[in-house]
Automatic annotation (TrEMBL):
Its cofactor is pyridoxal 5'-phosphate. It holds the Pfam family Aminotran_1_2. Keywords: Aminotransferase, Transferase. This is Aminotransferase class I/II-fold pyridoxal phosphate-dependent enzyme. It comes from Flavobacterium taihuense.
Length: 382
């Protein structure tokens, strides 16, 4: 008998991988499913981006293997994007590494810096991949609480009481997923100081900063952050390119070189045409963000109405691609609540529990559904 590696004993299939099979089966059975669960943008990239990809198909080297570090013009575009939008100066030759989606970067960073038995600070609630990757590399997840009473920001007094002697990496992500908490430069400054004090690699996962957010921020804006920090970013949500798989990791040359050692042994560079499209996307001006957010703003208004229609209390301060809402009083299980809605109303909503124990009592709606569909969802509760 062929047995699996022991590492698989401590992880499960990603929630959306398994749950969406169930949702697709219901749709195949004729159920009029409205999927408000997953944050996969339904809007298109700009026409300029699509034209750039089409044009690139005829380039002489378009279909060859590409550099592990990406096209020089892509790295330059990423550097210009950070300078223009965050005021952060980066050397495109050594401080930026394009990724096949920023999710890839979570694994690469973990493999580059974690030994078996190292501890990793993971937000609760937070992106489930932080935990699964930590387990896959044999490190130990140590969860730190994020709670609404603290506006979903870390309690530094509680952090200082933890045994931090084995902590190697701390994952953060602001704007926060799943709650939409904005964070602040003051918070980033505290986090950088904390990381320096305890010799921890701080990694900010930053794919949502341009969605319904008038104050985009980068952890790298903090003076001295490059000494202890990396930042992940992505074109998936910002430019409606989720399926294109274009991400980046940014930081000091020494840290980036360590990540490159892992990446270069695991994959090759992105397809040439996709890189050319990404270069064009990164040139987008404020009118692109304004037009995208005009759509999301209308959707958020309707989605908040839906949440309130089913008795939930919306976290109004949230930004990003989701609406985070507290369940009605007396509801014991977020998963039972969303399953009842799925089976009775054919609407799929994400339970907060998949993001950690502090997600119990909450649900999350994605703004990746057209206005008429959100209105239809509202009408199903009339």
């Amino acid at each position: 008998m062929i047995t699996t590696a022991k590492r698989l004993d401590i992880i499960e299939e990603y929630y959306f991988s398994s749950k969406l099979r169930e949702v697709r089966q219901l749709a195949a059975e004729g159920k009029p499913i409205i999927n408000m669960g997953i944050g996969s943008p339904d809007l298109k990239p700009s026409q300029a981006v699509i034209d750039a990809v089409v044009s690139a198909m005829q380039d002489e080297n378009a279909h060859q293997y590409q550099s592990y570090q990406g096209l020089p013009e892509l790295r330059k575009g990423m550097a210009d994007f950070y300078q223009n939008n965050y005021g952060v100066a980066l050397d495109p030759n050594v401080e930026i590494l394009p990724l096949i989606g920023s999710k890839e970067g979570i694994m690469h960073i973990s493999m580059a810096f974690l030994n078996e038995g190292d501890h990793v600070l993971i937000p609760n609630p937070g992106y489930p991949t932080y935990s699964s990757v930590t387990n896959l590399v044999g490190a130990v997840p140590v969860y730190y609480d994020l709670k609404e009473v603290n506006n979903w920001e870390p309690d530094f007094d509680a952090l200082e009481k933890l045994d931090l002697s084995k902590v190697k990496i701390m994952w953060i992500g602001y704007p926060h997923m799943p709650t939409g908490a904005r964070g602040s430069l003051e918070l980033f400054e505290k986090l950088v100081a904390f990381a320096k004090k305890h010799h921890i690699l701080l990694v900010n996962d930053n794919p949502y900063s341009f969605v319904l957010n008038d104050k985009p921020m980068s952890l790298l804006q903090v003076e001295g952050a490059k000494d202890v920090a990396l930042e992940l970013n992505s074109l998936s949500k910002t430019f409606n390119m989720a399926g294109w798989r274009v991400g980046m990791v940014l930081g000091s040359a020494k840290l980036i070189d360590s990540v490159l050692k892992v990446k270069s042994n695991m994959d090759s560079g992105m397809f040439y045409g996709i890189q050319k499209g990404a270069v064009e996307a990164l040139k987008s001006d404020q009118s692109w963000f304004d037009s995208m957010n005009a759509v999301y703003k209308k959707r958020r208004v309707l989605t908040e109405q839906l949440a309130e229609k089913i008795g939930c209390e919306v976290y109004k301060e949230g930004v990003g691609l989701f609406v985070w809402a507290k369940l009605p009083t007396g509801i014991a299980s977020a998963e039972d609540f969303i399953d009842k809605i799925l089976y009775e109303k054919s609407i799929f909503i994400t339970p907060g529990t998949i993001f950690g124990s502090n997600g119990e009592g909450y649900i999350r709606f994605a703004l990746c559904v057209k206005e008429e569909k959100v209105q239809e969802a509202i009408n199903r509760f009339s």
